Structure formats: C-alpha cells, structure tokens
Amino acid sequence: MYIDHYYIILVLPALLFSLIAQGMVTSAFSKYSKITNSKNITGSDAARILMQQSRISDVKIEAVQGSLSDHYDPSHKVLRLSEPVYGRPSIAAVGVAAHETGHAIQHAKGYAPLGLRSALVPAAQLGSSLGPALAVLGLIVSLPALFNLGIILFTAAVGFTLITLPVEFNASSRAIAILRDGKVLSEEELAGVKKVLTAAALTYVAAALSAIANLLRLVLLSRNRRRR
C-alpha cells in the first residue's frame, strides 16, 4: 500500500492550519458583528468617510451578496461590501469595510505590491488550475518537460499567495490607522477590529503555506522518482 509521506508531513498540517484560521475568522466576525459601534456607522458609511478623508472620489461602493465576500476591484475602482458589512453598524462591519478601503487607498497611492498582485492574477489563475494537474501527469507518464511546465505554472500561483501577504497586512495597518486618526471608533472598538483583521490575515498566511507545501511535495516526489 502506497503512503504519500510528503502529503502527511507537508500538506496535511497546512490544511489543518487553514481550517483553524477559517474557524478563527468566522468566530471573530460573528462575535463582533453582534456588537454595534458607538457612532452607529455602517460599513458603507465608514468606507465613504475614510475615502473622503483620503481624498478619494472616484471609487464606487456597492453591495454584493454573500458573507465575507468583500473586496476592492482595482480594474473598475469599485469597493464591494457583503450584506453583513454594507448596511450594518457593527464593529466587524466597520473593520472589514476599512480594510477594503485600505486597498482603495493603496491603489490611489500606487502601492507597488498591489499592482504586482493585480498583474499576476491571470498567471495565478492558470497556474492554480493547470499547474498541479500537469505536474502530476508529467510524473505519471515520466515526461520531465510536462512536469517542469506544471511546476512553472504552479510557481506563479504560489508567488501570488506570497505577494498577497504584504498587500493584506498593509491594508489592515492602513485600516487601523485611518479609523484611529479619523476618530471613527474608540480604542476599545479598535481592539475588536484588530481581532477580526488579525484572524482574516491568518487565512492568507494559511493559503500561502498550503501553496508552498503542495509545491514542495511535487518537487520532492519528482526527485524521489528520478532516484529510482
């Protein structure tokens, strides 16, 4: 019976960490979604206030379906906030909206890692969908060229997860700073925002670790096969 030791040693722990991180962000968001902020400001209100403070006037704010589906679209300059964030005056809603506004501020100020991440999106999408499959197929049929192509494509996807880390960390830092400077939330409320954004940041760390673990597993499997 074949046992993939590399999967057990590398990939499985990364997957477990991903589950833990997802559980933490869900728990933190759920907790602080139930606490109304002292100024009764909704997520969309907070986004408008913070963009005004940052002198950004060309970004639209739209509601989008789903939960934790919030994102900033730099190609269309649209800030999309999910239903639990857009119209609700919770601490979590303001924190998430501020984080996404942080991305809009990054875009306005020409933050280089954000531009690099946007440029990597097509390669990352292709690499994550085709890279591992081509690499595995290359191993099965013993075609090094096919395996190498898969690894190159998958490396682009891994690179995307790595460049995402400073982009997300910086957006959270900007969110905390502008909320504090604009006196949108109290220090006690900011502590709740930090917990929500820290938990969210762990999901990006988990994604990067999972991608790296899968890449290392494929490379090590290839080396073992060459030795046989």
Structural commentary:
The protein is mostly helical. It has seven helices and three strands; from the N terminus they run ααβββααααα. It has a three-stranded mixed β-sheet with strand order 1-3-2. The chain is elongated and about 65 Å long. The model has no long low-confidence stretch (mean pLDDT 94).
Average the pLDDT over all residues and give the rounded result.
94
Q: Strand percentage, roughly? A: 5-15%
Shape verdict: elongated
Count of helical stretches = 7
Question: Keyphrases for this structure?
Answer:
228 residues, mainly alpha, three-stranded mixed β-sheet, 7 helices
Which helices and strands occur, and which strands form pairs?
Layout: H1 5-33, H2 43-53, E1 60-64, E2 71-73, E3 78-82, H3 83-86, H4 91-108, H5 112-140, H6 144-181, H7 187-227
Parallel strand pairs: 1-3
Antiparallel strand pairs: 2-3
Helix pairs in contact: 1-7, 2-4, 4-6, 4-7, 5-6, 5-7, 6-7
What is this structure, in a nutshell?
By secondary structure, the protein is mainly α. It has helices at 5-33, 43-53, 83-86, 91-108, 112-140, 144-181, 187-227, and strands spanning 60-64, 71-73, 78-82.
